[in-house]
Amino acid sequence: MLQWALILLPLLVGGAYLFIFYQVDSLLRAEIERQFSARYPDLDLRLRSAVWTSGEGIHLKGIRIRDPRLDAQAGDICEIEELFIGFSATLEQLWRGDVAVETVRVRRPRIRAVQVDATSWNFASLLPLPQFSRNPPPIAIESGTLEILGLSSSRGGLTLRDIELDIRRVPADNRSESPSGRRMRQLSGTCTGDFLRRAHINGTIDPHALQMNLDGTVDSLEVSPAFWAALPQRISERPPLLANLRAQAAFGFRVSYDPAASPPLRFDLAGRLLQGRWDAPLAAHPFTDIAGRFRITDQSVRLDEVLAVSGGTQIQIREAEARYGETLEPLLLDATVTNLEVEPGLKPLLPAAVQRQWSKIFPAGLVNLQTRLEWVAARPRGFIRMDLLDASFAYAEFPYRLQKAQGYLRLDLSEERLDVNLTARADNQPVEIRGHVLNPLGVSQARLSVTGRGIPLTERLFSAVLNPATQDLLRALHAAGKIDVWVGIGQEVPGGKPRTQIQIDLRQCSLKFAGFPFAISDIAGRIIKRGDVWEFQDLTGTHGSSQIQAHGDLIRDERGSVFS
After folding, report:
1. Mean pLDDT lowest among 123-127, 198-202, 223-227, 405-409
2. In this structure, are residues 309 and 319 in contact, taking their beta carbons and an 8 Å threshold?
3. Which of 86, 173, 379, 520 has its CA 20 to 30 A from that of 400?
4. CA–centroid distance for 88 within its chain
């Protein structure tokens, strides 16, 4: 009997030991779930196991937190594969709550941050986080995952993976002794994710007041339409012009959040774009090979030394800046565009006042642009210069297209003045246009001169005369030869009717009127138009051996046309 007792005693002791510890673990799990429910009555906690190891601490496994008030997508807030809370307390101390936590290790947590409405997220019920110790222990997060989903699931989501974080108390010599200073934690770590190769994060965070100041670097971010769609809606809708941008970005960042501040979120990102492509709305060709520096803050966007190509066009943005308002408000633009093809697709991209001028001259061809603009009180100051390389245009009221135009147009927005210095070709003959326009985008004043030499009298020239009766007369005269033309345009009264003077010198011209076939050749002389009066000066011509001379006036008034 004694022998059996000696054999069974260790078994009974071991079984009792196992029973007691099983009961401890069960009671511990139940107590954790009870305290969680008391603190967060609207949330559910499920815990697969809780194991206490004497001299080490507690291992919690299979943690799941959900909000039953939300749907399946938003309700699952957090899952943690394993949470270890390290301390050396005895069982009695544990039961009394007399525990000094020495370390916390969180393995493979998965957090789903889902936007519930325009102002709230599903994890809001967990905030503020509880403070379980007067001297918070260091926390290590291993292999974490964070899913961020905006209001509409159709917009996709953004997932950060391989999150490795180390959270420690800020050293005493670097923190204040205020309540917020004592709660502040120092954070450092790395992560990868969708569109993200690797990010390095450092900073401080107050997990109870939800205040944070973070900085770090991103080695490579893949910017694309899918990336913008994955961001929360309020962020992704802020830069609409970038919605079609694809590029690789590497940058540093600073982010601060304080719910008591206005605005609560502040951020500053600065870095480089590489291998960019932008499919700009309405542009004939995409912008490719985009590279340069950028800076994006919660207040503004800035670009420096950005280069891009669009078809045969090269774009250089030396510096550009805009700030957020109801729309993106420009502040500064210093740029050069080389070999820009002027075609109708550009017109919708221009300001309304420029579009109205476009419809008057029908431009086309190849140009260079240079601009330096600054906006003061929402009004642009500076200049835009257009150098024509090989362009053409035609005035709407006399659509005789001038070709192979070269020279420049310079718009000074500070003085509200457009200077014109152009040389073009009309049927391969030179035409010079000189002058200026004051307030060209508003109620304008103008002084321009157009000079052409050796312009041939052709059907193309006659067709540009919009008056059908005048067209019929020119064709009936069978006019031929060449002319020198000078046109002066003066608009002294802002918005008034332009005053036009025309001088035509005839050179070896001829005519033969269809209704009276009397051919006249070697016609020379001068025709001047002032207002409604046409003056014919020193006209000469020949018919065979006969010499013909003429002069006089053609006056148009309410009675019609009168020769004298």
Report:
1. 123-127
2. no
3. 520
4. 56
Backbone angles phi, psi at 72, to 5 degrees: -60, -35
Give the separation between CA 208 and CA 153, rounded to whole angstroms. 30
Structure tokens that stand for 344 in this block: 């109708």
What pLDDT does 90 receive?
Answer: 75
Are the CB atoms for 267 and 229 separated by under 8 Å? no
Which amino acid would we find at residue 481? G
Residues 6+ apart with CB under 8 A from 375: 329, 330, 331, 332, 381
3-class SS of residue 461? helix
What is the DSSP code string of 272-304?
EEEEEEE--TT-SS-EEEEEEEEEEESSEEEEE
pLDDT for position 294: 94
> How many angstroms separate the first and last alpha carbons of the chain?
156
Q: Scan for tokens 């496994």, then name that residue.
A: 61
pLDDT, tens only, 92-144: 777 777 788 889 999 999 999 888 877 778 887 777 666 656 678 899 999 99
CA distance 369 to 349: 15
Burial of 484 (0-12, 13-18, 19+ CB in 10 A): middle
Distances in Å between the Cα of 502 and the Cα atoms of 292, 443, 457, 484 are: 52, 24, 16, 11
Distance CA 399, CA 401 (A): 6
Helix, strand or coil, per DSSP, at residue 22: helix
Is-contact 298 325, C-beta < 8 A?
Answer: no
pTM: 0.78
- E strands of 67-156, at which residues? 76-86, 103-114, 139-149
